[in-house]
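User: Design a sequence. Structure:
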C-alpha cells in the first residue's frame, strides 16, 4: 500500500490554510502548515514532505511582512536533504520579476492566489506528485 503523501503549506493567512487543509484532507493527503520559514525548513528536513505550497509574503521576526518565501526557497534548494522537494509558489505577488525569481530559485510552478481555485491548485499538486 502506498503511504499518504504530505503537503506543507507555508502561509500566514489562517482562512486560506483552513480551506486548503480541508481540500487536501478530503483527497487523502497529510497536510501540515506553518507561517515560519525556520519551522518549514525543519519540517522539510524531518517530516517526509512530498511538496511545499509556498507563499512569498510572510511575517518576519518583528511581525512585518517580508518576501521570506524567497529566502526559504533558496535555503530549501541549497540543502542536499531537501533540494528535490517540489515547490509551488502560491502568492499574491504576480509581477513578472517575482515569477522569474521564484522559478529561477527552483520552484516547479508559480501560481497567483487570486487566479486559481482550490481545485486547480489540487490538480497541479497531483500533476507534480501524483494522487494521495
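Assistant: Done.
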Amino acid at each position: 500500500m502506498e503511504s499518504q503523501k504530505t503537503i506543507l503549506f507555508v502561509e500566514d493567512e489562517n482562512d486560506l490554510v483552513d480551506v486548503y487543509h480541508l481540500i487536501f484532507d478530503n483527497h487523502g493527503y497529510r497536510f501540515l502548515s506553518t507561517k515560519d520559514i525556520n519551522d518549514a525548513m525543519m519540517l522539510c528536513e524531518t517530516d517526509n514532505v512530498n511538496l511545499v505550497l509556498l507563499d512569498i509574503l510572510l511575517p518576519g521576526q518583528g511581525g512585518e511582512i517580508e518576501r521570506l518565501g524567497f529566502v526559504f526557497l533558496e535555503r530549501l534548494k541549497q540543502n542536499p536533504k531537501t533540494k528535490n522537494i517540489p515547490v509551488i509558489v502560491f502568492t499574491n505577488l504576480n509581477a513578472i520579476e517575482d515569477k522569474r525569481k521564484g522559478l529561477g530559485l527552483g520552484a516547479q510552478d508559480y501560481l497567483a492566489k487570486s487566479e486559481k481555485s482550490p481545485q486547480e491548485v489540487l490538480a497541479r499538486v497531483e500533476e507534480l506528485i501524483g494522487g494521495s
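The helical segments are 14-26, 37-46, 68-78, 96-104, 118-129. Residues 6-129 form a domain with the Rossmann fold fold (CATH 3.40.50.2300).
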